[in-house]
Amino acid sequence: MQDNIKKVGKTRGFSAFTAVLLAILLGLVFGYIIMTVASPANSFLGFQILLLGGFKRIGDVFYYATPILMTGLAVGFAFKMGLFNIGASGQYTMGMFFALYVGFMWKLPDSVHWLVCVLAGMAGGMLWGLIPGIFKALLNVNEVITSIMFNYIGMYLVDMLIQGNATMYISSKTRTSYLPTSAQIPSLGITNSSVNISIFIAIIAALILFIILNKTNFGYELKATGFNKYASAYAGMNGKRNIILTMVIAGGMAGLGGAFAILAPSTIAGSSMTYEPVSVIAANGFNGIAVALLGNSSPIGIIFSALFVSHIQRGGTLASLYGYKPEIIDVVIAVIIYFSAFAMLMNTMVGNLINNLFRKNRSKKFLPVDPKEGA
Amino acid sequence: MENYIIEMLNITKEFPGITANDDITLCLRKGEIHALLGENGAGKSTLMSVLFGLYQAEKGEIRKNGMVVKINNPNDANNLGIGMVHQHFKLIDIFTVLENIILGVEPNKMGFLQKKEARKRVIKLSEQYGFEVNPDALIEQISVGMQQRVEILKMLYRENDILIFDEPTAVLTPQEIDELMEIMREFAREGKSILFITHKLNEIMAVADRCTVLRKGKLMGDVAIKDTTKEELSKMMVGRNVNFKVHKETKELGDVVLSVKNITVSSKIHNNNAVKNVSFDVRAGEILCLAGIDGNGQTEFVSGLTGLEKTSNGIITLCGRDITKATIRTRSKSGMSHIPEDRHKYGLVLDYSLEENLVLQRYWRPEFQHFGFIKSNAVRSYAEKLIKQYDVRSGQGAITPMRSMSGGNQQKAILAREIDKEHELLIAVQPTRGLDIGAIEYIHKQLIARRDAGKAVLLISHELEEVMNLSDRIIVMYEGEIVGELDAMTTTVQELGLYMSGAKSSIAKENDNAGQYQKGGEN
Q1: How far apart are CA B523 and CA B519, in angstroms?
Q2: What ipTM does the predicted assembly reach?
Q3: Domain shared by A191 and A313, yes or no
């Protein structure tokens, strides 16, 4: 029995999972401490609603999970190849813009309009992934630097283009006007929630990435490159092509995320989601990094980590009923991310802990009683 | 009770899943050279790490001069007078010799470094033993042999009298090895005690007084060298009789398989060419060995030959086809197999399973894929075939994580992969580095089998014994140039050593650009 536990403890998937759980647990403990410090009287109730509040807003949990699921995939997929795609925000914003543009400017049959918008969003993200990919592959420019730059370039470019377009932008409201209903993604019909079928598309996208990573030649090459780029070069893999392709796919995921966010149906009839050009980099892109880290860069893991982050965010919003500012929840999430950065360290810590516990048990219990036990 | 300076009594050190040292006792007399012999993985390094304070033993005790001591870290070891020359030197490349020697024990006044005294002492020590080390040379500018002397000076500077040498001869030329042996004898005469870790029997026979033999973590015995023979020691180490000589039939030479003309490869480290104007042919049915001391351009040459780096000049022809500018994949398809020098960096994806590594050179072929999807059944059955055929041993068969396999079996997996792939030329770079005798024997046999099958084999090796045993022809590389071509049947180790150290060159330098090429502090 003990040997079995030890064996399980050694498998890679298990230790990654325990590390994430530990990260979350520690994050929550710290979150609770912070809440207690902020307002001791309400901390228990506040913490309770933080943890469980999401269940009252299941629709919203799924709705808000969708974009960060996509940006999480964008970061995690590139990370499998050893690329740090910090540019998910820019790709997300570009996806949003392309989707908006098609939504406002193209007149298409109602049945396919939203779908074309979604695809346009993906194309926008791909474009914004392609450029850092080319820089990295052909000129060996670090993708972190280019993609950070492209976050800003994308954001300012989109703000400029939207403000310059009279059909899309209403200057008196300083935001985009309402999208036509045909461009909005079909709702799932949950009252008071914008949740829509894009969550399914997102999950399907994650499953497709999972299959690409694990069942295809491209995935084999991609992971080999991520694990050991020297060995992949030695084996004759086309590193340049793979880098570009990976960044394009990653960008496409983030772009889809942007499209899903902006094309979501509004709960109020006759309105829609709007974009406000305020020169701020989209937070969902950075949340994607957190989601990918928590999900251990695995597409399946990212589905759950996106749901978890969204759940805790909804809970955090509700915690304001007890006088907590929404920023508190940002702190809690930040702590969780901080701890998941130590996930690998915790892996060995947990492993050693388990081993030590059993070793102690063994020497205490068995050896003095029956010295032959070890043989 | 004899007078031992160090006693390691009943040392047991366990790692998860393995007992690296099982109840091992090692006693070191004052003023003796004591060899510690064993194959890779026998537990030599672990035992020395316990003595040096890098690991703590679960059981057993260490005594110095009969007193039980506790060594928790290398500082404790140092305070007890124990010093170690590690196999991979612990030197800072961009520091001078002097700075490296005083590192960790910097003489200072109120935090300001006082180098003058230290400098005098280092020069004095260096003169005393005839080391000829310049205290102001940068480590990166001096030869490997000199670097080793710096490591030795470090121990002397700290006034250590128990000196551990971990595989000190691996990086040296035959002449340098002789000098090192002389230095070790000198130390012993002065009453210093030396622990000498190695798996080279000749060196033990030449220099050691006594020898402790380990096998698979267990103590095999403790013998006086004068009462034993090389054969006896190797039997203790391996557990069976070992064939030192590789059997080789004469073989008719075939066509030229690989032809290299005027290849030049630039260096990544300095602004010079690491490989200069190298030309040679390899024919089917021969083993051509490119010999030379580590760091004379062999690595860069292989990178250029296999396509990992660009060559800046020259033509490479493989089976009549110009592959000078071809991609790695094209070279591989044209019949080039490559056992890389650094199997962890290039040869394997350690986070992949055994089967995934076995198809690393052929996963893209039609039999393993279907519209870009990997046929996992085909991969599995192919991997199982290779595992059986080449006797690759692992914990869980085809799905074993590569990282968990032993070095010998990792190398066998690479060998299986590269040999099983269609090839005309097999490039084997240091194919037996770090392997135990059993695995070395196996790999040597396989290389000879390739030659006998009419393939061309280009062997790059720094191990003289390997070079002498396997090759049909030897070319020697020194500072990026081919300085000699020797017939393996007629040459001697001494002659080879002279070529390797640059003392002898049979090839007139026509396009002499050696003037531009300076390697400071070398001579």
Answers
A1: 9
A2: 0.78
A3: yes
Residue A301's contacts (CB-CB under 8 Å, 6 or more residues apart) are A16, A20, A76, A294, A295
Number of domains in chain A: 2
> How far apart are alpha carbons B435 and B408 in whole angstroms?
6
Same domain, A156 and A28: no
pLDDT digits 0-9 by tens, B181-234 = 999 999 999 999 999 988 778 888 889 999 999 888 889 889 999 998 888 888
Sort residue B167 into left (φ over 0), alpha (ψ -120 to 50) or beta.
Answer: left
- Band the pLDDT of B98: cuts 50, 70, 90: very high
State how many domains chain B has: 2
Same domain as B152, residue B40 = yes
Shortest CA gap B217–chain A (Å)? 17
If you ran DSSP here, which 8-state letter would residue B325 be given?
Answer: T
Read off the tokens for A93: 């914003």
Kindly report, residue by residue over B147-196, the tens digit of the pLDDT: 889 999 999 998 899 999 988 887 777 778 888 999 999 999 999 999 99
Last residue in a domain, options B238, B269, B302: B238
A86 and A10 in a common domain: no
Kindly report the length of chain B: 523
Sign (positive or negative) of CA dihedral B458, B464, B469, B472: positive
Cα separation, B174 vs B185, whole angstroms: 17
In the predicted structure, residue B517 carries a pLDDT above the cut 70? no
Looking at the fold, whether A73 and A165 belong to one and the same domain comes out as: yes
Residues of B in contact with A358 (CB under 8 A): none
Chain A: give the shortest CA distance to residue B375, in Å. 8
Closest residue in A to B362 (Cα) is A235
CATH number of the domain that residue A293 is part of:
1.10.3470
B98 and B186 belong to one structural domain: yes
CA dihedral A120, A126, A128, A134 (to 10 degrees): -150
Return d(Cα A240, Cα B353) in angstroms, integer: 25
The reply to whether B222 and B140 lie within a common domain is yes
For residues B381-398, give the mean pLDDT. Answer: 89
Residue with tokens 């698979």: B216
Of A217, A224, A233, the CB nearest to B352: A224
Same domain (yes/no): A180, A249: yes
Q: Give the domain extent around B74.
A: 4-238
Residue with tokens 């194959």: B39
Co-location of B308 and B212 in the same domain: no
Measuring CA to CA, how many Å separate A94 from each of A118, A203, A207, B354, B473?
12, 21, 24, 42, 63
pLDDT per residue as tens digits for the range B264-292: 998 776 667 788 889 999 999 999 999 98
The CATH number covering residue B164 comes to 3.40.50.300
The amino acid at residue A73 is L
Using an 8 Å CB-CB cutoff, list chain A residues near B361: 235-236
Q: A107 is in which domain, residue-wise?
A: 58-319
